UniProtKB/TrEMBL annotation:
Lineage: Eukaryota, Fungi, Fungi incertae sedis, Mucoromycota, Mortierellomycotina
Dilute domain mapped to chain residues: 57-376
Positions of the UniProt region annotated as Disordered: 166-229
Any GO molecular function: GTPase binding
Protein name: DIL-domain-containing protein
Pfam family, one: DIL
Tree of life domain: Eukaryota
Organism for this UniProt entry: Linnemannia elongata AG-77
Compositionally biased spans, kind Low complexity: 175-198
Length: 376
């Protein structure tokens, strides 16, 4: 037990909480929880309920103030999650104190959950800054950013060439260095009907009048773009995991935090894709799926619960739909496909069907249409 009086509480709180710096030493990490519990035992068994209440009130307020002063200090928050968990455990294990501190235990538990949520919110804020370039812009396979889409240029170019044909003969038009070959099979995706793909994407169009012009797609990415990838996110997750494990945070809390962050990544990518027509294509779905697999590999490599993969399930089904949409030959095939995508609601499916972007030379089956989605 730790003998003290009411006048000593301020010093105890300052020493064990206010001025305490996080330490990685296994024997020193839980010192605040040990001291506060021993003081609580003395107050309960050898002093008065008032002294016990005063001690616990001061403890809760001091931890709140320390955390509030540095809300972005993940190490400090993890340290106090650990100590608060240990203190709460000790209070519940002691039969006498457990009954006398029921109200304060609820407050300590609420404080504990608030700190866990603070870690989640802070990590989400950090991930949000790099989410789009990491998951939606990073090219795991070189050349995917050069894929051309029919709605972007093929039909427009064909229209401009039709206007030119009124002033030029057919032979002259065919010999133009800017005339695209719309029947070429050299696009990245190849022919979906044949089930094959070629590694040579169409090169971006350039002006032939100046050899010094550099195609925009061929310009090297900025240093920031080169750095950011799905591994940027996994590095952040690894750092967070290391901090939580270092301070012996309970595995249930660790898994909760990671589940929340993976769910955040999944839902943000899902919502950004389905709300942006430019992202609703087969090549973008393939690119995003490859990026997502890096996060899945991270879960496996760190021996985390396999149920964490469930956070990606709706996004995975969206990406699957985008990759097979143009292969739906008939209505029965389409219905069978939808049965396997039970996590997508009718509104989402119709949005994908109506806004889907076909690549140049991508096979276009007769179905489905925007009206062929499941019933709402």
């Amino acid at each position: 037990m730790f003998v003290f009086s009411s006048k000593d509480i301020k010093h105890i709180i300052e020493t064990t909480i206010t001025t305490m710096e996080p330490t990685r030493s296994r024997s020193h990490k839980p010192i605040p929880a040990y001291v506060l519990f021993l003081a609580a035992r003395f107050a309960h068994y050898f002093s008065s309920p008032e002294l016990l209440e005063e001690l616990l009130e001061a403890t809760i307020l001091a931890i709140k103030n320390v955390i509030k002063a540095k809300p972005e200090d993940m190490t400090l928050t993890a340290y106090w999650i650990s100590n608060t968990s240990v203190l709460l455990h000790f209070l519940r294990k002691d039969v006498g104190i457990n009954q006398a501190t029921d109200f304060h235990q609820m407050r300590i538990e609420a404080l504990l959950l608030d700190m866990v949520q603070m870690i989640v919110v802070d990590a989400e804020r950090r991930i949000e800054k790099i989410l789009e370039p990491a998951m939606l812009e990073h090219d795991t396979i070189a050349g995917m950013d050069e894929v051309k889409f029919q709605s972007d240029w093929a039909f427009l170019w064909r229209g401009s060439m039709s206007k030119a044909s009124s002033k030029n003969n057919t032979a002259k038009r065919a010999s133009s260095p800017l005339s695209p070959n719309l029947t070429s099979t050299s696009t990245f995706a190849g022919s979906a009907a044949s089930g094959t793909s070629t590694p040579n994407p169409p090169r971006p169009l350039t002006r032939t009048s100046s050899s010094s012009m550099v195609p925009l797609a061929n310009r090297p990415p900025s240093p920031r773009q080169r750095r950011i990838s799905p591994r940027t996110i996994t590095t952040m997750l690894s750092s967070l995991l290391f901090v939580m494990q270092t301070y012996d945070i309970h595995p249930d809390f660790i898994h909760y935090v990671l589940a929340q962050l993976l769910y955040y990544v999944s839902t943000e990518v899902f919502n950004r894709m389905i709300s942006n027509k430019k992202l609703l294509s087969r090549s973008k779905a393939l690119q995003t799926r490859l990026n997502l697999s890096i996060l899945e590999d991270w879960i496996r490599l760190n021996n985390l619960p396999s149920k964490l993969h469930d956070q990606f399930a709706p996004l995975v089904q969206l990406l699957q739909l985008l990759q097979v949409l143009s292969l739906q030959e008939d209505f029965p095939t389409w219905i069978e496909t939808l049965k396997k995508l039970e996590l997508l609601n009718p509104t989402q499916v119709k949005r994908v069907v109506s806004a889907y972007r076909f690549e140049v030379n991508e096979y276009r089956a007769d179905g489905p249409s925007a009206n062929d989605g499941p019933e709402t």
